């Protein structure tokens, strides 16, 4: 049995990461910071893609609650895009080859630019961001020693990713009533299988290039951050496996409690700012 989705709340917040470029913002760890930064570089292009994926299906969605969720999802992603453009500007000022990384993301998305392809891929990528966001919320110690501007941004982003995590999958089911369940299942799992290795691989490659360009530590630090401490990839595994369940709609019984915890943490951050 699943609980209802938490309310989706677009929050027009600004964090000023652009004004605080810091290659060691994650507790003084340059390799760990670089890995998260490499993931962050992908987000503006991804968030624009997600909006393009969902908005065209609004005329086909008749459920008023889902229609509102699509609009709130798009509003959240628009605010995320703005803040992550500032984040990418900070990375450029550190000498990271952000333009090359963004071009790689644009090239990938251009290969999947039909309405349904965008929707299937959006569902898969949103589940990855949901898995990472759960880690940020469930393991607050990961961000406790981070630079305040970065910590606030990631806690805000993680909260909103969990809030809207089921929207894409619900839209997919609503707009493909004539597609057999088995076929929808195969296609959404195939999208995850296509995207996940590329996404992780690009983040690792980009982070390594950035470290080399700025005289950072060896690549071992990246593997340590990915697999051991904090172990982003390792900790993602249980949530990623949930996506392989037939009929999965992105709802988990713990999400309401997770959102409540994340909202309290964000409120505390903003109060202390």
TrEMBL record:
Signal sequence annotation: none
Q: Which domain of life is it from?
A: Bacteria
Q: Which Pfam families match?
A: Metal_hydrol
Check the record and name the InterPro entries matching this protein. Ferritin-like_SF (IPR009078), UCP07580 (IPR016516)
PANTHER family xref list:
METAL-DEPENDENT HYDROLASE
Q: What is this protein called?
A: Metal-dependent hydrolase
What organism, scientifically named, is this protein from?
Roseococcus suduntuyensis
- State the taxonomy lineage: Bacteria, Pseudomonadati, Pseudomonadota, Alphaproteobacteria, Acetobacterales
